[in-house]
């Protein structure tokens, strides 16, 4: 029996079209790994719960885990990112889905609890909400060893788990899949980078000639800055880390404090993982230029001070799906994308399938690794093994028909030795 709550089951046919498209763009996850999983059934009898954006790419991951023998439960990792058609299609395939676009915070956690009620053995989180809920409300799952280990998809989640570990309250083995090279070099840089196009589609304005502020210069935001420049924008980067600020400067971007950048910015896009990138004060709000577009591509909706902007606005007018015009007391208009939530996922379909292929290839192999090594795992954070990271890299290259060199034994000894010099 499939357990589920989705918005509209009649959307399944449309969802199948989306999944069909993603299948062909995700050869590592949907073909190579899945075919082996189908034969070897490494996840037989295992329940896997994923708190992930419910997209066609997540659907491909769910199919692969299911092919490996797992029973899969899914809930959304953001209230506005669920593709209702995909959710409906997955239910028809026997995936247990609890997600719909536009759920309230209360409903969001209800969905997470439905997944945890299934007593999952592996949790795959995106942002840490499910694993934190397991720690707070489902202690038995941890104490009795039902949860064997967990996997985290995104930078914000990893940051939260590092804080938990430091405090000594992380009670499960946890693999920060986000930090693997095959994840963050591609998903974060290219996926979020190109996400500026998906995000701006909410307004459909031209980047060329605009003053664009990119808050942050980490993996995600540096990709965004590069893409904005490629589209012809005059790009300013804001940072708090001296090395990243230098990197941005030497890459040719303007670098300055956000307060100095605000008055001329036409578009402000954030992906810092921090809160209140624009401080929630009247002084800062008054610095914003009339007509400015505000969008966030970071995990949570507090980078742009959404709540405070809503409070300050005299009028909030929805102008199209998930785009609002906020009128300030002085008559100035500010355009907010996706209610401050991940605008690339809310206003479009998130990262393209090609990069998610690597992220979800890693997630698939890590679930298998967890089961194979379950007796050896201890609570705390453990890096994704380098051979699994490399494996996904090799598989991706192979799927693209790209060849590369291999070291000779002599070369290997040279780079691993110290004896040879001048
Ligand atoms: N992300 N998933 C998608 N198309 O399914 N797009 C983006 C998708 C993930 C990505 O891995 C990132 O780390 C996370 O969403 C942010 O919540």
Structure in words:
By secondary structure, the protein is an alpha/beta fold. The protein folds into two domains: about 10-185 and about 350-400, Rossmann fold; about 200-345, Rossmann fold (3-Layer(aba) Sandwich), CATH 3.40.50.720. The chain has helices at about 10-25, 25-40, 55-65, 85-90, 105-115, 130-135, 140-145, 155-165, 180-200, 220-230, 240-250, 260, 280-285, 305-310, 345, 355-370, 385-400, 410-415, and strands spanning about 45-50, 70-75, 95-100, 120-125, 150, 175, 210-215, 235-240, 255, 265-270, 295, 315-320, 325, 335, 380. The longest helix is centred in the middle third of the chain and has 20 residues, at about 180-200. It binds 1-(beta-D-ribofuranosyl)-1H-1,2,4-triazole-3-carboxamide.
SSE topology sketch:
Blueprint lengths: L11 H14 L1 H14 L6 E5 L4 H12 L3 E5 L8 H9 L3 E3 L6 H13 L4 E4 L3 H9 L1 H5 L5 E4 L2 H13 L5 E3 L5 H20 L10 E5 L3 H12 L3 E5 L3 H9 L3 E2 L2 H4 L5 E4 L11 H6 L5 E4 L9 H7 L2 E6 L2 E5 L5 E5 L5 H4 L6 H20 L7 E2 L4 H14 L9 H7 L7
Parallel strand pairs: 1-2, 1-4, 2-3, 4-5, 5-6, 6-15, 7-8, 7-10, 8-9, 10-11, 11-14
Antiparallel strand pairs: 12-13, 13-14
Helix pairs in contact: 1-3, 1-4, 2-3, 2-16, 3-16, 5-6, 9-10, 9-16, 16-17
């Amino acid at each position: 029996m499939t357990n589920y709550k989705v918005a509209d089951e009649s959307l399944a046919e449309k969802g199948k079209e989306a999944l069909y498209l993603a299948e062909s763009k995700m050869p590592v996850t949907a073909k190579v790994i899945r075919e082996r999983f189908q034969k070897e059934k490494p996840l037989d009898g295992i329940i896997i719960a994923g708190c992930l954006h419910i997209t066609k790419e997540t659907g491909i991951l769910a199919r692969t885990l299911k092919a490996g023998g797992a029973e899969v439960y899914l809930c959304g990792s953001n209230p506005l990112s669920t593709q209702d058609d995909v959710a409906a299609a997955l239910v028809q395939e026997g995936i247990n889905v609890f997600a719909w676009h536009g759920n309230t915070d209360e409903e969001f956690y209800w969905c997470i609890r439905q997944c945890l009620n299934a007593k999952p053995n592996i949790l795959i989180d995106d942002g840490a909400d499910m694993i934190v809920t397991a720690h707070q409300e489902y202690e038995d799952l941890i104490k009795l060893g039902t949860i064997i280990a967990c996997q985290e998809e995104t930078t914000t989640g990893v940051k939260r788990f590092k804080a938990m570990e430091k405090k000594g309250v992380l009670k499960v083995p946890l693999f920060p899949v986000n930090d693997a090279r095959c994840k963050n070099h591609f998903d974060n840089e290219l996926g979020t980078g190109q996400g500026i196009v998906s995000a701006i589609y909410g307004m459909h304005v031209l980047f060329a000639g605009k003053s664009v502020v990119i808050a942050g210069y980490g993996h995600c935001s540096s990709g965004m800055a590069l893409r904005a420049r490629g589209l012809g924008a005059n790009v300013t980067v804001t940072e708090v880390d001296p090395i990243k600020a230098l990197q941005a400067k030497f890459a040719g971007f303007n670098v300055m404090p956000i307060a100095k950048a605000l008055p001329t910015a036409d578009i402000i896009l954030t992906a810092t993982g921090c809160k209140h990138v624009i401080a929630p004060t009247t002084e800062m709000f008054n610095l914003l230029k009339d007509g400015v577009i505000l969008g966030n591509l970071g995990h949570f909706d507090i980078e742009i001070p959404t709540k405070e902007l809503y409070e300050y606005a005299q009028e909030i007018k929805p102008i199209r799906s998930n785009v609002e015009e906020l009128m300030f007391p002085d008559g100035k208009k500010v355009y907010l994308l996706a209610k401050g939530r991940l605008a690339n996922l809310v206003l479009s379909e998130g990262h393209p399938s090609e990069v998610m292929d690597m992220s979800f290839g890693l997630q698939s192999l890590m679930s298998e690794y967890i089961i194979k090594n379950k007796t050896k795992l201890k609570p705390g954070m453990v890096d994704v093994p380098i051979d699994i990271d490399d494996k996904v890299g090799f598989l991706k290259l192979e799927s693209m028909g790209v060849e590369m060199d291999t070291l000779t034994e002599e070369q290997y000894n040279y780079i691993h030795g110290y004896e040879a010099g001048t």
